[in-house]
Design a protein that fits this description.
The two termini are 16 Å apart. Strand 5, helix 3 and strand 6 form a beta-alpha-beta unit. The protein is an alpha/beta fold. It has one domain: 3-Layer(aba) Sandwich (Rossmann fold). It binds manganese (II) ion. The site of manganese (II) ion has 7 residues, from loops.
Length: 246
Amino acid sequence: MVFMTRPLIGITCDYDMEKQTTKLHRGYYDAIVEAGGLPVLMPNIHEENACKILAFLDGLLLSGGNDVEPAYFGEAPHIKLGFINPCRDSLEINLCRQAMERDIPILGICRGVQLMNIAMGGTIYQDLESQWIAGQLQKHSQLAPDWYGSHEVELDLNSRLFRMLGVKKLRTNSFHHQAIRDLASCFRATAWCGDGVVEGIEALSHTFAVGVQWHPEKMWQKDEKMLGLFEGLVSAAKRRREKEGV
Ligand SMILES: [Mn+2]
């Protein structure tokens, strides 16, 4: 019965196009449960069904994964572009735009933050190493264990991210060769690595649309403050549900 009162949080999944299997790191699922939500997995099998499910959701978590098709931000594929999944891109761009339109709280993680920005009209670096010209890059594809914070991130003190994480500086893990480039007009950057790479964004006027470039789902069990991101999503979802009176 306790789950009846929990807000329903949809989590997008990865899809192996060769094996035709859906997968999700359980850290996402467990974090939503731990934060007080009821997670529901959204595979990339049938876009129309996923969009129908969205109507029942109180919140949406866009999970990590491969690169986004650059045609969505008007570019040809760079030589260092990695794997892309056309089904997943189409589904998530669509889900993200609809959720933003309905002001459904969204948390984007790694690929998820890039996808949010692209869906709303922004761009990304298709490959940081070959496209970053603003000085020396730090290592963003860490070879340390996945729960380990390998680089520092600094937060804007006047941001939702700061309020959720409770610290001005933190160490995060890093598994990305792409990153936010031009922000969509509805977002602002609120977290940066020391080299200037954007590590977090949030919406200017939506109730809750936040994205981070790192992987808190792999850190929260060892670093408690990382759960704050999932708690932020779940409490925004809860408030929306109470407001909607469902
Ligand atoms: Mn990074």
